[in-house]
Amino acid sequence: MLRLARVVGLGRAKELALLNDHISAEAALGMGLVNWVVPPAELDAGLARVIEKCREGAPTATRHTKRLLHESFHTDPRAAIDRVVADQMDCMRSWEMEEANRAWDEKREARFHPPRPPASSGRAARRAGDRDG
Prior knowledge:
Oligomer: single chain
Radius of gyration: 22 Å
Number of helices: 8
């Protein structure tokens, strides 16, 4: 309910909420209530495609993008710009940027999954291994 009027407009939101009529998948798609419509038999394959597409993105950039989109409804535009700049700097310093640059140089797709472990855990594991052997 909270975002219904923003998506379909106040008049259509009232119609949907008060009349309680069923709508088809195609009508929901046309109103912007859903992003995709697939036949029931293709649901698993369609979902797998969406998940794979989401996994192709860099995790840091994806996290910032999701948060910025959610905050866009209640954040002052000037503050939002400052947040975008800070988030872009964070992305530029991330391991994902290193991977993207390496992939560009090697003329291949960047691989962001599985995510690289934080550097500290790698050093700790090496130190523990040095003591054992």
